[in-house]
Amino acid sequence: KMFMLFSKHDYLGLQYVTRDDLFDKILEEPRGLLGNRMVDFVHPQDGNSLRFGEFLDFFYTFCLFEPINMLKFIFHMFDNEDTGFVDGTEMRHFVYALHQTHENSTIEQGLKYMEDNDDGDGRFEYHQIVDMHTKFPVLFSPAFRLIVQMRRNSLGEGWWVEKGLQRYESKLASAANDEKNRKKEVAKSKK
Q: Which long-range contacts (CB under 8 A, 24 or more apart) does 109-113 make?
């Protein structure tokens, strides 16, 4: 199904889908800073288009994101030097760009909350961004809407949710197995 979706938008048969077509025709969402960074994350060979493997990487990476993954992604977009902080002014501009508006009282309330929780240095740590999202989920809602659109317009939300549950269960089983092996090693070392 993913190849059919890709091929449908590979109009000239050149084995790529442009970023514009990805957002306008497949995702039906505006192409903005976040969307561009998401595409850049899969390192497309040609900056303006995705080949089929890159197209798959894009969908399989982000459609399996949980909300916490998206918040981490957003945080690291602005903390690209791994300082552990993001600049408050940059975050403000990002939120406005994400919503593509400067006129929204709910956004203003959320940004005011962010500013009120500033330690005085104009920078924010990851936990502060999570707290802001918890108190004002509307601030980052377009990012989550983008993931929903990706799921709906590809294999369907149900398919992605099921795949995410399988992945989660696999991680739990792996962690349980690791713990079991660790306990065996501890028991062996005591003998």
A: 109/136, 110/135, 110/136, 110/138, 110/139, 111/139
Kindly report, residue by residue over 113-133, the tens digit of the pLDDT: 888 877 788 888 888 889 888
Q: Which H or E run contains 18?
A: strand 17-18
Q: And the tokens for 115?
A: 């500013």
How far is 172 from 137, CA to CA, in rounded Å?
28
What would the pLDDT profile of 60-74 be if each residue is shown by its tens digit?
999 999 889 999 998
CA distance 154 to 58: 11
pTM of the model: 0.77
Report angle CA 133, 136, 139 to the nearest 5 degrees. 75
Rounded Cα distance between 105 and 118, Å, is: 20
- Residue for token pair 């601030």: 139
**C-alpha to C-alpha distance for 71 and 120, rounded to whole angstroms:** 23
